[in-house]
Known about the structure:
The complex is a heterodimer. Chain A is about 40% helix and about 15% strand. In chain A, β1 (about 5-10) and β2 (about 15-20) form a beta hairpin. Chain A is globular. The two termini of chain A are about 20 Å apart. Helices cover about 20% and strands about 20% of the residues of chain B. Chain B has 4 helices and 8 strands; from the N terminus they run βαββαββαββαβ. Chain B has a two-stranded antiparallel ribbon with strand order 1-8. A two-stranded antiparallel ribbon of chain B has the order 2-3. A two-stranded antiparallel ribbon of chain B has the order 4-5. The longest helix of chain B is centred in the first third of the chain and has 11 residues, at about 20-30. Classes of the chains: A alpha+beta, B alpha+beta. At the A-B interface, α3, α4, α7 and β13 of A face α1 of B. One iron/sulfur cluster binds next to α3 of chain B.
Amino acid sequence: MYRMLSIDLSSGKIEERDISDIFKKFIGGSGVLTYLAAQELTKELDPFSERAPIYFALGPLNGYFPSMSKTVALFKSPLTGDLGESHAGGRMSLAMLSANVHVLRIVGKASQPVYLSIDGDRVAMIPCSSLWGRSALATERILREKEDHRKGKKSIVRIGPAGERLSPIACVTVDSSRHFGRLGLGAVMGSKNLKAIVISGSECPKIENKKAYQELYDRIFKELIESENTYKYRDLGTAANVVPLSKIMGLPTRNFSQGFFESAHTISGEYFADHLLAQQISCAHCPIGCIHMGVFRELFADPHMYKTLKTSYDHELIYSLGSNLSIAKAEELLKIIHFVERQGWDAISIGVVLAWATEAFQRGLITLEETAGLALNFGDAETYLKVLENIAIERNEFYKDLEKGVAYCAKKYGGEEFAICFNKNEAPGYMTGPDAFVGYAVGVRHSHLDCAGYSFDQKYLGRAEDVEKEVKAMYEEAVWRMITNSLVMCLFARGVYTPKTVLECLNVVGYNLDEQSLDRVAHTIHGMKYIIKEKLGFDFAKLNLPKKLLTVYTSRGKMNEDSFKKRVEFYSKLVEEDKELALRAV
Amino acid sequence: MAKKLTVKDRERCIGCYCCMFACTRVWYGALGIEKSAMRVKNYPGVEGAFSVRVCQACKQPECAAACPTGALRLAKRGFGVELVRELCTHCRKCVRACAANALQWDEQLQIPIACRHCGICVRYCPTNVLTMQEVV
Ligand code: SF4
Ligand code: SF4
Ligand code: SF4
């Protein structure tokens, strides 16, 4: 039985619901949540109102198979006003499974700061005014210690001060440095006075079909352990991309002015591994171990007083707070990441904002008056740390504005042409060419994870463009990811979980699907998402490239506006059929 | 001679819990980690440091000595313990007696979880933290 636990923070009311039929129809995770939230997410709904829901969900293979290790969140994004979806690892999916909660729905607003405690059947809202204002890292430390008596693995899901301040680029941090990063879930939690969720339980669901299951498990486990495709994520991690991307001019540098970063090698995965990597860690039930923890020892008083920062890094952070700000020293970069981690901003978004602010300052759109005397220069880590500090203390109106996202800032201060965002969402770390950019524009989450445009660009390097073929390939990838997102698998395992293997897994846990029916579900979910998105104001016809990106060189040369428009139009046509399918299905 | 489960290199642990999933899966036909006879635990506030706790395979187990009913007793292989479930009165004296804090407790069934020293968890550890060692 798949169970939804629904909690109203205003009234304290707790409800349970059997949603097995919805899991049957829409697999789980993202598909189930899209269906559940479809009616609730309206254009009029204020993302910070009591009625705005936060949903978390597992997929049907979480707990069963390795690297099915993520949890998905769905909400109305305060950053874009559009559909918000974000995925995080850590121990949350294990903890939800142990608490026998497959979907967690939270509405309402607590009258004072609380954390939500779910320990098996015991659900409580625990006042925690004394935790308000605490960093995301301190909050985890405190709650892990406070709740240490509990049996079972706890997952601690919390916001930092950025979420409390309702910054629409605030993230939600899960356990050791995993995040529901994008689209502002942190602010939605903040608006509900919800500082954290501590979840645990001691359920161990029984396995049916034990022999077939174990055989399949072993095959997948072996592939995950042995495959080069997954090993690279443990070895250097996604940071392995930094130098190769720079070589092909695909690493955004100094606010997307160019794709080549002259200091890529000093903030590369190799540099980090050789000098700063402390160890790799993993999400629960994932043998890959992709989380790279960097340590940085800093002298803080003479002659030998040191402090040590430990913080995780990966490609997106190295781009957004590194190359895009022209930070050439990995040690300085770790310090910036650490600050961002404590405040609880989405690292991509805050990096893009800082890059925009620097360019806006250099062009005179903002002055020393706004920055309270700080001159912004690319490469100046010390000043960037001061800027972040000023945002954190809400020094003045300008600093308060910075954490409202780059689209907001550019609208108010100017410089929209170099505010690098798509549908108001700050762009991820690839400027490989049209497929990457089109992917950010059309994707359901406006993220590189929607359809992996960056990888199609790399396949087409040096080749003539083939608009229809490229767009079709991206679209097909996006549709398949409706399934991976509904299983809530780790995308790093996607090479092992081919459609064939996924079908085997689903059928071993009691689904009855074939290739065709799985494909139909994928298209239906895809269609449902665009129906919601369009209801919330998304419009293919209004999609544009930030002007600056028309003038810069990508890995595939200069962008061309017509080609961009053509691609978007073609993509929107492909989506039409999915929408029809979705309308028929629901 | 028989082999026992031991921790070879704790510092290599990535905290993936595949070991505990394996023990729970294979011996209890269940999902999760709660039935596992060994535990990997992370500490509050210490990023990435894991304590890996396995049955110490005592030849004179203090947990068995503490058991008032003889339910938990020295295993026939001569080290570690086995449980005669019908005799267990769920008093928890055994887990409290294990100074290494290595004997685990099944919250659902309210019984101790005796490690079989079968080596299954070892096979699923991706970084070779665990090993099977000759008992001497
Ligand atoms: S809980 Fe059971 S096995 Fe443990 S000491 Fe008590 S009776 Fe013996
Ligand atoms: S040796 Fe066997 S019984 Fe003991 S912890 Fe490992 S898998 Fe479980
Ligand atoms: S399987 Fe190995 S690395 Fe993973 S938690 Fe267990 S001991 Fe640690």
